[in-house]
Write a structure and sequence with these properties.
The protein contains 2 helices and 10 strands, in the order αββββαββββββ. The protein is mainly beta. It has one domain: Pnp Oxidase, Chain A.
Length: 177
């Protein structure tokens, strides 16, 4: 195991075993797998993302946690908006293209080869996504190595409500814990 366990370990417990158990339990929490869109100062990005949840009914608020040293974090702070794009379960391979910062192209209207359009807030929205939510930033909170961003839904589309959407457990990806 690389490095010491993070966080408290109960007295009399093997730290490595406890840390492994804690991570494995956190990985089992059900979560969706999305593409998080951000833009600022002429730069756009889509990032594979799974830490998202609705945090208020009135107003409609969405929380997303983003690693502090990522391009997405920088663009979200600067641009003040984000999109959360749902991915069809059968399109699971597309999320691998966005585990690193996206690149423009190879033709106009594409990010790392995926067609996108500009949303009402200027962030990229995946063309043909079964659903998306577009949010304006309302609050942020530093939480360890991530920041929790809270955005108010200002636009959404559910073009294919029958589509089965991607979940973390549909892939071999793991993040967190």
């Amino acid at each position: 195991m690389a490095g010491a366990p993070v966080g408290p370990v109960p007295a009399g417990t093997d730290a490595d075993d406890y840390d492994r158990r804690r991570r494995r339990t956190l990985w089992r929490m059900p979560s969706g797998l999305y593409l998080l869109g951000t833009a600022h100062d002429g730069r756009r990005n889509l990032m594979t993302h799974n830490w998202a949840m609705q945090v208020s009914v009135a107003p409609k608020l969405l929380g997303v946690a983003v690693r502090g040293d990522s391009l997405t974090h920088e663009l979200l702070l600067g641009g003040g908006a984000f999109s959360l794009n749902f991915v069809r379960r059968e399109d699971r391979a597309v999320v691998r293209a966005f585990t690193k910062p996206a690149v423009e192209g190879p033709e106009p209207g594409l990010l790392s080869g995926l067609p996108v359009v500009e949303g009402v807030t200027g962030v990229p929205v995946v063309a043909g996504a079964p659903a998306y939510l577009e949010c304006e930033l309302r609050a942020s909170l530093a939480t360890g190595d991530h920041t929790l961003f809270v955005g108010e839904v200002v636009a959404c589309q559910a073009a294919d409500e029958a589509a089965e959407v991607l979940r973390m457990e549909d892939t071999r990806l793991s993040y967190g814990g």
